[in-house]
Amino acid sequence: MKKILLLSTGGTIASVPGENGLAPKMSADELLHYLPEQNRSYQVETKIIMTIDSTNMQPEYWVTIAKAVYEHYDQYDGFVITHGTDTMAYTSAALSYMLQNLGKPVVITGSQVPIMYKRTDAKKNIIDAIRFACEPVGGVYVVFDGRVIIGTRAVKMRTKSYDAFESINHPYIAYIEESITYHHPVRTVRSKEPRLDCSLCPDVFLLKLLPGTKPELFDYLKGLYKGIVIETFGSGGLPFQERNLIPKINELIDAGIAVALTTQCLEEGGDLGLYEVGRKVNQDLIINSRDMNTEAIVPKFMWALGKTTDLTEVKKIMETVIAGDTTP
Ligand SMILES: NC(=O)C[C@H](N)C(=O)O
C-alpha cells in the first residue's frame, strides 16, 4: 500500500465563510474527513504547514514547504500539498528548483470552491492529486481539474472556472479520469539522492511595460532589487524612442543588477534577436527567458541570485533548462 503525506497550506480549498469573507481555517486532517470513504489502495497521513490565503505567500514560505517535503522524503511514497490557487504556480515552480533529483511525485492542488460547499471541486482535485502521488514518477506537478502539469509550466488562467490552470508552452503530462492517461513522458531520477537547494534571494522585481513607461523608474529600482524581470512587448521589444529605456537597462546591468527579459505574450516565448527594438540592450549579460513562464522566471531568478551575484553566472543558471521550464 502506498503511503502519501498530505501537507496543507491553506487556500480556498480550506476556507470557510466568515464576517470578512472566505478565509482558510481547515487543517489537512479536516480536509481529509470530507473525502468519501472508499476502498483505498493508499494510506494518507497529514501535516499542517501553514494556513494562509496564497495571496499572502512569501518566498521564505516556499522554503518551509520544500523543507517539509524533504524532511519526510524517506517515509512516504508521494506528497500532496494543498494550496491556494492564486500563487500556486509560483510555489510549484519554486519547489521544482528547490527540490532536485526527485524520485517521487510532489503534487500541488487546490480548488476554486471551498471543500465545505456542495458544488466544490476540492474533493475531486484532492483525490486526483493523491492518485497521481501514487504514480511511479518523480518531480513537482500541479494536478487540477483532471489535468497534470509539470511544476514549472502551470499558469492560473481563470479566476472562477474549475479549469483554472493550463499548461503553457509545454504539453500536459497526463489526464486523470477513471484511469491515468499519460500524454507526455516524464523522466524520473532514481539513481541520485534528492537534494534540497533552497538558497533564495527575494530581491526580485517584476515590471510589465506599457506604452509610456518612465525610464526614471529604473533609478528607483536600482537601489531596491538585485534582479529585475521585464515583461517586454511581443518577441522582446523595449521602447527606445521618446521614453528610451535602453540606457537605463544598460545602467542597471553596469551597476550589477541582473535583468531578465520575457514577453507579455503567454505563448511561444520571446526572441530578442528578431527586431531592432529587441537588440539594443547589453546582449552579453541580459537574460533571455525564452518561453519560460513568468511564474517560473521569478522563483528561478530568486534561486539563482541566492547562489551568486556574478551576472555571467546568474545568466548561465537562468538560461539552463531546469525541470522542463524552457523548450530546449
Ligand atoms: N482559489 C483559491 O485558492 C484562491 C485563494 N485566494 C488563494 O489563492 O488562496
UniProtKB/TrEMBL annotation:
It catalyses: L-asparagine + H2O = L-aspartate + NH4(+). The active site is at 12, 12 (o-isoaspartyl threonine intermediate), 85. The keyword Magnesium does not apply. Residues 203-318 form the Asparaginase/glutaminase C-terminal domain. Residues 3-184 form the L-asparaginase N-terminal domain. It is an enzyme of class 3 (hydrolase). GO terms for biological process: amino acid metabolic process. Pfam families: Asparaginase, Asparaginase_C. Belongs to the asparaginase 1 family. This is asparaginase. It comes from Paenibacillus elgii.
